[in-house]
Design goal:
Mean pLDDT: 75
Low-confidence stretches: none
Largest sheet: 2 strands, antiparallel
Strand order of the largest sheet: 1-2
Strand content: under 5%
Helix content: 55-70%
Number of helices: 8
Radius of gyration: 23 Å
Order of helices and strands: HHEEHHHHHH
Shape: flat
């Protein structure tokens, strides 16, 4: 598919679909922080922070200590800041992706621009992941029954393997390791077939993992019933 030969209507529709896909994919980190907030009954919009959570110490490490105190006490402002640190990636990543496409179409996407974009993206995603790790580290004990880390790894693991195995297959095809021995089958189709087979095999593994990470038990009402009985016994 040659983007340069597309008419304006087709390229616009393709661009709109691509931007939608990017927005959905890169909001995963922000949504996982929101999920952990909901597990602890935290609401940023309504300024609800349970008393048992307020005052918890967050220990920042280098290089964050260049911009933040080493020890910060958890409050509404801190929680809002962590939220902003995750959402900035959901905004910066799609914007830079659109700029990359536009600059490439205009023939202006040079080497130094690529390096600048790469640096910005690495800083952005590092900050977003840092926010998740910091929050999870402080409340690991309270969040353990909900398995948020397993949930996150199940979602991002699929994306990780699909992307990097595609890169590896591209390298193998370029190096001539993957090649066609039949005139009716080219290397591109072999590469695509290998990618599809690997994804099918990986989905079996991830489906088993998701049975653990997204177990039905917390939604059956049994957990709430046990908590109720525990309160009555007390």
């Amino acid at each position: 598919m040659d983007i340069m030969k597309m008419d304006r209507r087709t390229s616009t529709l393709l661009g709109a679909g691509f931007c939608t896909m990017l927005t959905m994919h890169f909001t995963v980190i922000a949504k996982f922080l929101a999920l952990m907030y909901s597990y602890l009954n935290i609401s940023i919009s309504q300024k609800i922070v349970p008393d048992g959570i307020k005052g918890r110490e967050i220990h920042h490490s280098f290089p964050m200590t260049l911009f933040q105190p080493r020890i910060v006490h958890l409050d509404h402002h801190t929680l809002k800041l962590l939220k902003y640190w995750t959402w900035q990636f959901a905004i910066i990543r799609p914007v830079l992706s659109i700029l990359m496409i536009v600059l490439q179409l205009l023939g202006l996407y040079t080497g130094w621009i690529s390096w600048v974009f790469s640096i910005i993206l690495n800083i952005s995603v590092s900050l977003a992941l840092y926010s998740l790790v910091v929050f999870y580290h402080v409340f690991a004990k309270e969040l353990a029954p909900h398995k948020p880390l397993a949930k996150f790894l199940c979602v991002k693991g699929i994306v990780f393997f699909c992307f990097w195995q595609g890169v590896v297959l591209d390298i193998l095809a370029s190096a001539g390791i993957i090649r066609s021995h039949h005139f009716w089958l080219d290397v591109e189709h072999i590469q695509e077939a290998l990618q599809n087979v690997l994804i099918c095999l990986e989905m079996v593994v991830f489906s088993v993992m998701q049975q653990y990470a997204y177990h039905v038990h917390p939604y059956t009402g049994e957990v709430q019933e046990l908590l109720r009985k525990g309160r009555k016994a007390d």
